[in-house]
Design a protein that fits this description.
By secondary structure, the protein is mostly helical. It is about 75% helix and about 5% strand. The model has no long low-confidence stretch (mean pLDDT about 80).
Amino acid sequence: VLRVLAPLSRVSSALVQVEAGERDVRLKPTGLAELDEIVYRVNATALAMEQREDAITSRIRTVQRMARLVAHEVRNPLQSLELLTTLLVAEEDSASREETGQAIRKEISVLDQVVTALLHRSIGADLDLNIQNASVEPLMRHVHRINKPKAKDAGIMLDLGAVPKVEAMIDSALVGRSLANLVINALQHAK
């Protein structure tokens, strides 16, 4: 009886630990076939719970990363909209109000594009990095090309200059977005 009760007591203690959320709770086989089946089930249940907990934690981290990404990507257009609406209220000239209104619509379009891109990226994806060997040159040329008209409208010369032939292990989409953010911030704050 004692030979059976001692392992049952360990099984009971292990179940209490698993219920409390402790990790790495594992029992050693007892040598009793009937009892070892229960030991196996306790160990399998503990492992399955840990794996589910890890999956939930991973999903939470993904949602947090997504929230940070959305906040970062949406902040610049929102700041521009705030400034433009302040200007719109202060404008006395109808032509200036119309011009500011067009700028607001343009910023709303930019904001819509950012949100749409984020939604497309998040569908079925967990925002893991897609790191590959890639050239930085095409990313720089693309950012230059799409921001040159905005710079010209602002009276700012956006010069690409000599582009280095650099290859690196990067996530091209995120590095391209980072370069774009740098240029957008510079255009917003340049004099």
